[in-house]
Design goal:
Number of strands: 16
CATH architecture of the largest domain: 3-Layer(aba) Sandwich
Number of domains: 2
Distance between the termini: 14 Å
Structural class: alpha/beta
Oligomer: single chain
Shape: globular
Radius of gyration: 21 Å
Strand content: 15-25%
CATH superfamily of the largest domain: Glycogen Phosphorylase B
Strand order of the largest sheet: 3-4-2-1-7-8-9-10
Amino acid sequence: MKTVAFFSGYYLPYLGGIERYTSNIAQELIKRGYRVIIVTSQYEKTLKNEERVDGVMVYRLPVYSLAKGRYPLLKRNKLFQELCAKIRAEKIDVFIANTRFHLPALLGVRLAKEVGKEALVIEHGTSWLTWNQKLLDLGLHFIERRLMSYVKRRTSRFYGVSIEAADWLKNFGVSAIGVLSNAVAREDFERFSRPKKGDGIVLTYSGRLLRSKGIETLLSAFVKLSEESENLSLVINGDGPLYENLKASYPQASIHFSGLVSHEEVMKTNAEADIFVLLSKIEGFSTAMLEAALMKNVIITTELGGARELMPDSSYGYIIENSETALVATLRELVSDVEKMREIQERVSKRVRDFYTTNCQVKCND
């Protein structure tokens, strides 16, 4: 039995696209007879340093949390050394590093090199890390290049989670071997799928409430459109810096802020919703977008990583300019033609089930 180890900055119960991606792939590998290990950060002290979760052995390294918990810095103490010794003793056959700038991923690259292997590095981004401040960003970009140089000295096996993510690696002088696409669990379709109610049109968004995600544009566009149509509602799943302010600014009964919710609740919302909107500026290949498409939502998004792969033409969904004007026009066209909306929902859901499930991705790349 081969052992596959994923090294990532975060893992479940942390709620994020990369974490769902890793969990989905891990479960598919277990079905195929692999042994799976996750090495990640103990981002909350209540989490165990070692435990088995859904058949996966999880090691959580002690960390200091920087940047409001967004960057786990490893505590190289006695516990850290003990956990590393146990990880080394696991006799890992395949090392996979996610989020190459997080230190647990860099550890995976180093441990692979120690045993004469090259870690497989999966790129999930399509742009530089940012503080949204020019001078700070210059320093951040310098650090990002240095971290990538560390990785490049220890492996040549780079992949992107989308075509755009693979292309982004060229900025570091890296030619990606190929694409290991983002994927979702097909079982979620059988588990959560249900007929659309048809007594109104539900829009949804799932993710962190950040300006870079375009959430303010979505809310403003929805308010304008709801003045023209009374059968519209909007569900916002997620927490973040803008949560309290947005909730206070948009008290309309047709807008529901769910806050931080479980994966199960997100999928239930997706099953009931009709349209998913993501106007993010930065995405490698959004898991939230794929999950919404799986559950028969029309996708409205911008030129993000993975968007053209999921929606090769307008019969699969909408890729628009990142502006309120473009969003209002697209929504107005869509809600006025329910039959067309239903056709797109069926078509994009089938495309996800055919090409972007973990079963398909693992089978194609095993």
